[in-house]
Fold HflC protein.
Amino acid sequence: MNRAPKKGRDKISEMVLQQASKDTQKYGIELIDVMFKRVNYIQSVREKVYSRMISERKRIAAEKRSLGEGRKAEILGKVDRELKEITSEAKRKATEIRGEADAEATKLYGESYSKNVDFYFFQKSLESYRNIIGENTSLILSPNSELLQYLESTEER
């Protein structure tokens, strides 16, 4: 008998129970159930069974991995979306705060400079020189230079 059973364990169990019940009734024995403790397949069938079991496990593993990758992509997408929302809100607040601070600074500068116009022009010329002049820079100024005018006027005071 070198062929693989095509009926399955339950069907074979049922067939054995029916056949054995006929024989045991002669002796007054009623069979209720038959169970197989172990099935020893022949080598060729065993290899097919193991091969089928391995391929089934691989299929299940691939399915689980696929589900895991899908869930991972879903979670990463959600995290990325939340990160963008948080970053966007933080940038908006930072811009708003920076704008308020600039407005306040402009107001304070305006108030200070309106009280002393000469100081305003002096401050602006210093800012210009700071932006123009680098480290180790020599500067040659004419006597009519605005910077010299401010320095001379402060010496007179």
About this structure: The mean pLDDT is 85.
